[in-house]
Amino acid sequence: MSAGRLIVWRHGRTEWNLQDKIQGQADIPLDAVGLGQARAAAARLASLAPTRLFASDLKRAAATAGELSLLTGLKIEYDEALREIDVDDWAGLTMAELAAINPEAATRIRSGEPQRRGSNGETVEEVAARFADALTRISAEGSSEDTIVIATHGLAARVGICLFLGIPQTSWPAFGGLANCNWVSLLPGRAGWRIEEWNAGSLPEPVMSDDPQR
């Protein structure tokens, strides 16, 4: 069995987002704007009648999920595998500060080369595998009638979804980042899961075109 739809939802804004700081797994809460974003997005997602609600256990994702929980009555199922990439001692730095401290690492990140984040954090490949495994497990627990919402983080979601869909790593940079409180909608198709919407902030609409893929 498999879920009928997966909505992978990035958390609302934090003060560190506004300051362009690397967050990783630092437990930074939503700011006032982020809370408003979560409430507005939750009202839209509630109209999809979600049946299960998962979240990273970090405050910013948990609080985002909490707004949908209030509207739907769904219990939040927390999962550490949905956390953002671990950046270890880079947390709190801006990319400019990182470039001043470790220019080689900053250059590798910008060029997409393999680079462990922080002294003892994760690589992009490691967080992608962790997140993709979580999506595989969560989707397999559902039925075709389920719409499952997953409140999580931007980088982990982007690369984890790509790996989950079998997209080659060389193509991951072609998929843009998710804005605060935007989401990716995934549907099961004939040949596996497919993207319905990417970086969406409005509800999915039926596709009316000459493209027969459903």
TrEMBL record:
Q: Which Pfam families match?
A: His_Phos_1
Question: SMART domains recorded for this chain?
Answer: PGAM (SM00855)
Supply the name of the protein.
Answer: Histidine phosphatase family protein
UniProt xrefs under InterPro entries: His_Pase_superF_clade-1 (IPR013078), His_PPase_superfam (IPR029033), PGM_Phosphatase (IPR050275)
**Species per Swiss-Prot/TrEMBL record:** Kribbella speibonae
